[in-house]
Amino acid sequence: MTSQLNSFGSILTFAIDLETRLRDYYQAAGSSARAADADKRRATLERVRRENVTEIKLEPIEGLDEADYALHFGGSSAAGQKSNEAAAARFYTDAAPKINVREAQRALERCARQHQELADA
């Protein structure tokens, strides 16, 4: 069963979970620098969610589904890592314009850029 990402809270929760899973994946793969970067993004997203929770407008968000951004942790090959980075970049690129809180939108855009750079490396 897939889950719709249809609110500010669900998008930020998904993003925080995504970064946590990537951190754990990179730690297991022995890439401490990438793990640290994922953990830094996770902490930033948690701060953004905390600071903007009172500004959230309850406008529904449409067009985002968790299944479209699935990560695969079957191996730690360079190709597998690039595939996960591309999926993360796609999520942030799709989610950022749907968020109505500018600080949160900028944080998602920054995450998208960082993941895209890793996917293209």
Protein architecture, described:
The chain is mainly alpha-helical. The protein has one domain (8-120). Helix content is 66%, strand content 0%. It has helices at residues 8-29, 32-52, 78-95, 102-120. The protein is globular. The termini are far apart.
The gist of it:
The protein has 121 residues and is an all-alpha fold.
How would you state the average pLDDT, rounded? 90
Distance between the termini: 33 Å
Integer-rounded radius of gyration: 14 Å
Which segments are poorly predicted (pLDDT under 50) over 5 or more consecutive residues? Answer: none
Report the principal-axis shape.
globular
- What is the percent of helical residues? 55-70%
> Major sheet: size, sense and barrel closure?
none
Query: What is the N-to-C succession of helices and strands?
Result: HHHH
- SS summary, helix count: 4
How many domain modules? 1
- Coarse structural class: mainly alpha
DSSP strand tally: 0
Beta strand %: under 5%
